Write a sequence for this structure.
């Protein structure tokens, strides 16, 4: 299951290993289209990478910190550093291909 990130747990969560963070909002059509893929990735990568979500309406400071101006935006972090950023809807296989590069 994907983990919900907040300002309280964000930095701690991304600092170790590989973490995918989906910046999304409930009103965003492409975000809703991406949601099932994010859920599947959480199952597929369980134990190998963390799959997380940030609601940009609830935590705009996190979106601002990473320059998220369009959603969905999927970030890949490794040991707390941004390695890749995918903006807009992507199919699951495209996201998995990028994630695999950092495992």
């Amino acid at each position: 299951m994907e983990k919900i990130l907040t300002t309280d747990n964000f930095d701690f969560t991304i600092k170790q290993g590989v973490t995918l963070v989906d910046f999304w909002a409930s009103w965003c059509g492409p975000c809703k289209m991406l949601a099932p893929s994010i859920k599947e990735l959480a199952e597929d990568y369980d134990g190998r990478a963390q799959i997380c979500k940030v609601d940009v309406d609830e935590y705009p400071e996190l979106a601002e910190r990473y320059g998220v101006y369009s959603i969905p935006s999927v970030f890949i972090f490794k040991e707390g550093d941004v390695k890749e950023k995918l903006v807009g809807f992507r199919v699951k296989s495209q996201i998995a291909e990028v994630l695999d590069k950092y495992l």
The two ends are 19 Å apart (CA to CA). DSSP finds four helices and five strands in the chain. The mean pLDDT is 97. Residues 62 and 69 are 11 Å apart (CA to CA).
